[in-house]
């Protein structure tokens, strides 16, 4: 079947902290990007067919009833040969992405550290705190099989974790986070400009913002505001600060601080953001974090979160299985639990008023003109986001949509 | 320059038990190695494509020129199409199984058919 051809890796936009990527590195990323597209587009639909034509009927025949729950269904799926092949290929493709990216970054680790140092030295906008502990939701397993995760330092002044994350993102998402990887941040900005043009935040907190890829667009959109990125991962913050400086962004601060221990003045922020962060934390952190957010927001302030949409009564067992997959096999263990938590209830328990809460399927703002005209992007989360979009904003606009929830204080 | 073991760092294991999806983990090991080798062949092919395009343009084929080469839109499309076709070729058996799943009539068993004819 004629499929989508993703953009080539050389169309990503580089900056003063980008590692040097050679011809064969790009070729390797191109193959892996195409492989991801192929797995998602051509083989993944077959796993649904295997479920419907083979796994489910066989279970019903043997047990005289339908699956009781996901656990039962997962066990049955794990025995299906086509599913096994798709899952094994997806797993190995992710491992190859990590390996290829690390090969690029670690052979120039010292040069990258030195570059970062030249941007970071003497800056009071990078505040590292070695006493910050890595929470166990990050330290138990490495998220998306990223060896060492966001936080491991392999040498003093290391920035490798940040650099690895940034260059590999394109491969896994087939470029759908935009050529700068900042689709999340850009989408927030276009959402606010369109829906709340009167909102002019002066102080913005980006929780778990890491290397600030999605924080930079906020700083650019609101040049009079100060953006503070809080994260526990020193190498990511170091890289992010240098990256922001290399891009000429001055109104952004990188602070080593966990979501579990936000030490800021009460009611001191106009906007508190998290972009694809909660699913890498825990239920306790989400519940407590939302309370802290409420306390840190000024009256009239806004909190926004780009996240996985919750399951609803209409979510089928198949959808649950596929949407929870990353929780079991992509080392994002809170992902499944988050699907079942009522985030509106969490916000209500934190103090937010029900009539000030909202959620939307927001059209992703992917910068046009950077990719080849034939290239069309896709995200591994596209099906569910499309669903969320359809539920929220039926047919209003055409593009891919990302799920967003939030509240005004 | 500090002496660092790039391969050890690049190949490091992520924290967390690796899931194996096939009944026999040996199958998965071989698949993983096969896909890595397949990837390297595609890398070589893209490099060859660059060399051909440099030759066609009359540009000296030097290591520096190869590394500096960036395809235009049309060349990029052709190269991505090659990757897509290549992946479809090497994953042929998976797609044939998928096709048979869609259409079980494709799976008539010749042993059974032959035995039936012998018996008849």
Describe this structure as you would to a colleague.
The complex is a heterodimer of chains A (about 400) and B (about 120). Chain A is α/β, with parallel strands linked by helices and about 400 residues long. Chain A folds into 2 domains: about 10-120 and about 135-165, no CATH class; about 175-409, Rossmann fold. Chain A is built from 14 helices and 8 strands. Chain A has helices spanning about 25-65, 70-80, 80-105, 110-120, 135-140, 160-175, 185-195, 215-220, 235-245, 285-295, 315-330, 335-340, 345-350, 380-390, and strands spanning about 125, 205, 225-230, 250-255, 270-275, 295-305, 355-365, 400-409. In chain A, strand 5, helix 10 and strand 6 form a beta-alpha-beta unit. The longest helix of chain A is centred in the N-terminal third of the chain and has 41 residues, at about 25-65. Mean pLDDT of chain A is about 90; it is low at about 380-400. With about 120 residues, chain B is an all-alpha fold. Chain B has helices at about 5-10, 25-55, 65-70, 75-90, 90-100, 110-120. In chain B, helix 2 (about 25-55) packs antiparallel against helix 4. At the A-B interface, helix 1 and helix 3 of A face helix 1, helix 2, helix 4 and helix 5 of B.
Short summary of the structure?
The complex is a heterodimer of chains A (409) and B (120). Helix content of chain A is 46%, strand content 12%.
Features:
heterodimer, A: 409 residues, alpha/beta, eight-stranded mixed beta sheet, globular, B: 120 residues, mainly alpha, flat
Q: Largest protein interface?
A: A-B, 69 and 54 residues
Low-pLDDT stretches of chain B are: none
Which CATH class of the largest domain in chain A applies here? Alpha Beta
Strand residue content of chain B: under 5%
User: Per DSSP, what share of the residues of chain A sits in E-state strands of 2 or more residues?
Assistant: 5-15%
Query: Helical content of chain A, roughly?
Result: 40-55%
Specify the oligomeric state: heterodimer
- CATH architecture heading of the largest domain in chain A: 3-Layer(aba) Sandwich
Q: Give helix and strand order of chain A, one letter per element, not per position.
A: HHHHEHHHEHEHEEHEHHHEHE
Mind telling me the C-alpha Rg of chain A? 21 Å
User: Outline of chain A, from the CA principal axes?
Assistant: globular
Give the termini separation of chain A: 50 Å
User: How many domain modules of chain B?
Assistant: 1
| Count of DSSP strands of chain A | 8
- Figure out the total of helices of chain B: 6
Secondary-structure-derived class of chain A: alpha/beta
């Amino acid at each position: 079947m004629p499929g989508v051809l993703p953009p080539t890796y050389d169309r990503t936009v580089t900056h003063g902290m980008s590692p040097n990527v050679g011809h064969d590195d790009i070729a390797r990323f191109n193959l892996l990007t195409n492989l991801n597209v192929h797995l998602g587009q051509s083989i993944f639909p077959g796993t649904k067919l295997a479920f419907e034509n083979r796994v489910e009927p066989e279970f019903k025949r043997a047990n005289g009833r339908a699956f009781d729950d996901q656990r039962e269904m997962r066990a049955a799926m794990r025995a299906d040969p086509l599913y096994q092949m798709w899952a094994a290929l997806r797993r190995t493709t992710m491992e190859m992405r990590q390996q290829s990216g690390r090969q690029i970054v670690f052979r120039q680790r010292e040069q990258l550290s030195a570059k970062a140092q030249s941007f970071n030295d003497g800056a009071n906008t990078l505040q590292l705190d070695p006493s910050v502990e890595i929470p166990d939701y990050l330290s138990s397993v490495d998220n998306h099989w990223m060896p060492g995760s966001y936080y491991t330092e392999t040498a003093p002044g290391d920035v490798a974790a940040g650099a690895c994350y940034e260059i590999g993102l394109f491969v896994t998402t087939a470029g759908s986070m935009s050529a700068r990887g900042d689709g999340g941040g850009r989408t927030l900005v276009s959402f606010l400009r369109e829906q709340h043009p009167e909102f002019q935040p002066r102080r913005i907190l980006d929780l778990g913002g890491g290397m600030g890829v999605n924080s930079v667009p906020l700083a650019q959109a609101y040049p009079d505001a100060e953006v503070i990125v809080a994260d526990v991962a020193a190498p990511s913050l170091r890289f992010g600060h240098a990256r922001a400086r290399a891009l000429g962004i001055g109104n952004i601060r990188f602070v080593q601080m966990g979501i579990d221990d936000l030490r800021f003045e009460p009611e001191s922020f106009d906007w508190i953001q998290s972009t694809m962060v909660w699913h890498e934390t825990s239920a306790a952190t989400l519940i407590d974090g939302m309370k802290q957010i409420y306390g840190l927001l000024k009256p009239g302030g806004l909190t926004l979160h780009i996240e996985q949409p919750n399951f609803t009564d209409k979510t089928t067992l198949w959808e649950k299985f596929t949407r929870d997959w990353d929780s079991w096999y992509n080392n994002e263990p809170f992902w499944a639990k988050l699907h079942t938590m009522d985030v509106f209830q969490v916000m209500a328990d934190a103090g937010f008023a029900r009539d000030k809460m909202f959620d939307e399927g927001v059209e992703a703002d992917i910068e046009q003109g950077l990719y080849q005209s034939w290239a069309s992007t896709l995200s591994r989360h596209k099906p569910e986001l499309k669903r969320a979009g359809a539920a929220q904003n039926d047919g209003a606009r055409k593009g891919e949509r990302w799920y967003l929830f939030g509240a005004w204080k | 320059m500090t002496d660092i073991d790039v391969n050890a760092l690049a190949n490091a294991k992520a924290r967390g038990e690796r899931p194996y999806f096939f009944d026999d983990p040996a199958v998965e090991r071989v698949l993983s190695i096969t896909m890595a080798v397949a990837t390297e062949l595609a890398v070589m092919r893209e490099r060859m494509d660059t060399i051909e395009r440099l030759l066609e343009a009359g540009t000296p084929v030097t290591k520096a020129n190869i590394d500096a080469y960036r395809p235009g839109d049309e060349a990029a499309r052709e190269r991505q199409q090659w990757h897509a076709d290549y992946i479809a070729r090497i994953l042929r058996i998976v797609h044939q199984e998928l096709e048979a799943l869609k259409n079980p009539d494709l799976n008539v068993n010749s042993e059974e058919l032959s035995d039936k004819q012998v018996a008849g």
